[in-house]
Amino acid sequence: MKLNVLELYAGTGRSLQPFLTWPNTGKAFLVDNSEYAATVYRHNFPHAAYAVLDLNRVSTSKLAEFVGGPVDILLGCPPCQGFSDCGLKNSSDPRNKHVSRFHAVVSDLRPKFLAMENVPLIVTSRRFRKFVRGLEELGYIWTAAIVNAVLWGSCQSRQRLVLVAAQDKLSVQPSFPEPTHGGKLEHDPLIGRDFDFIANLTRHKLVVLDCRHLSLRQTQLIAAAAARELQAYGRMMTRRANEREDPDAESWFSVLFIDEAHAVAPNDEGVVSTQVIYELARMGRHVRTGLIMSSQSPSDLDGSVLKRLQSRFVFALERDQLKSISGINADLNPKILEQLPKLPKGVCAVSGSSELINHGFLLEVRNRRTPVGGTTPKVFHNRKKRS
Fold it and tell me: Are 204 and 177 in contact (CB under 8 A)?
């Protein structure tokens, strides 16, 4: 099967280049608004289908007319100046709108696969978060990573955000190939040796990501990667369960537990792990992925994440920390709130969404020892109402 490839914001066509020698490539097309770039490319590839078009002005139907058939693979690197740390990082830069324009093209052309490349700091922008939510709504499975091209043989070291996506119905899990260069990378704590996360989780039921000796930044990146991996796999298993094509999918459910959660999901939308954890808290229940967060400092935890958790267990808090839970304590009556700073050991206030908990209450957690793999007791079974 031959696949047509279209590269937008093509410049000198570096993203398209590998597809020119790929045996499964049908026709290849390039679009950019620079006449100079097109002239240089045509000089090297005289028979190239290269159109000089302004993507801010040209309609998607014009692009479809240029291709003359389906677009199977869509590539693009929207302008990065408004996101780059080499510039002003101006959220109002008009060139930032091209991220939304790229999404509109995806929505209209519905390619089987797509890839987008940009500077790493684009992940901190609202446009990027809106872009990936839009992909999910269109029925795409996606993954993204900040990668360095030197690991695959490039002659220069450049960090770039690369996102790849595939239509969910194709049952293809987007992933990145193993690096081909850099033999000592296995000693890097963020890369390390080959480890199949999902396979080990399925086999052993428990995977512990020990980040005690890593920097905060490294810990946040690992947490974000784990959350994204579970969410993507959960989405695939949910689809398979709904289509009843995989018996194992119907029983699949995973939980991500994060200790010291205020460090991993701080109240800062510029931190990539906060963004990823927010998406998991918002959509996890729809993709068979649970989230448990533990924190001794809720005032430093992202409030948007906290509000989206279905149930919350609040142990004794100092009075200066009470303000930090103001958005989640609506179902706790004033009497319970007054007791929070003086709650005895093993007693907590329970609040949550109306779907699970109508009225907040105090709960005494039983002292117990649970061996690994042991049965978790029903903590609500013997609950008694306090007067």
Answer: no
